[in-house]
Amino acid sequence: MKIGLGVTGSFCTFKNLLVALGQIIDTGHQVVPVFSYVVSAFDTRFFKAKDFEDEIIRLTGHTPIKTIVEAEPMGTVKGVDLMLVAPCTGNTLAKIAHGITDTPVTMAVKATLRNNKPVVLSVSSNDALGANARNIGTLLNTRNLFFVPFGQDAPLKKPNSLIADTSLILPTCEKAIEGKQITPLFL
Fold first, then answer.
1. Does residue 71 form part of some domain?
2. What CA–CA distance (Å, rounded) separates 8 from 146?
3. Mind listing the pLDDT tens digit for each residue in 11-38?
4. DSSP string, 14-65
5. Structural domain includes residue 182
6. Where in the sequence is the domain holding 60, given as residue range(s)?
7. Low-confidence residues of the chain, pLDDT below 50?
8. How far is the C-alpha of 165 from the C-alpha of 155, rounded, in Å?
9. Which residue among 84, 139, 164, 182 is the one 20 to 30 A from 91 at the CA level?
10. 64: CATH
11. Does the residue 134 lie in any domain?
């Protein structure tokens, strides 16, 4: 399977993403990375932008797509079989729910959905049960859109925060290619 990997700016989850990415590649899937503008440019306490890009290139063998123009063909016949957004921030959730296409990742998602191919979202958002709850609700009812199972990561300190279980990314993608949502969805 050829998987598009849209990476957005929940930098604290990148280590877990790299482990999941290794599992995907180890099972023989090809991965084409797509970076949001923030991931392409921001150095954080978790990763330097250049170091993270180098690691993605090392693992996938592909230079990340970094422009809307480059991302547009992702869903075509020559594109990917499935688009995975991991991590998927609240900002990206909102954009997808409202049809906003202003980053390479949201363009890749739009291109994939418009060609009736599956999109998998691996949520990582501090406001998923707050301002973004309505967007998750909308996306749960969107054809060809699937979620990596998620739960509260720190219910007492961050009661509105949700994070996907990245160890379930590969099984979620395998079900999504069959048109099925992995369950249980809520952990």
1. yes
2. 17
3. 778 889 899 999 999 999 999 999 999 8
4. HHHHHHHHHHHHHTT-EEEEEE-HHHHH---SS--HHHHHHHHHHHHSSPPB
5. no
6. 2-176
7. none
8. 15
9. 182
10. 3.40.50.1950
11. yes
123 to each of 57, 63, 75, 85, how far by Cα in Å? 23, 24, 21, 8
Count of domains observed in the chain: 1
- pLDDT score of 174: 96
119 DSSP β-pair partners: 83, 145
Q: What is the pLDDT of residues 129-151, one digit of tens each?
A: 888 899 999 999 999 999 999 99
**CB distance 84 to 120 below 8 Å:** yes
Six token digits for residue 143: 């054809």
CA 125, CA 2: separation in Å to the nearest integer? 27
Structural domain includes residue 181:
no
CB 146 within 8 A of CB 172: yes
Torsion of CA 153, 155, 159, 162, to 10 degrees: 20
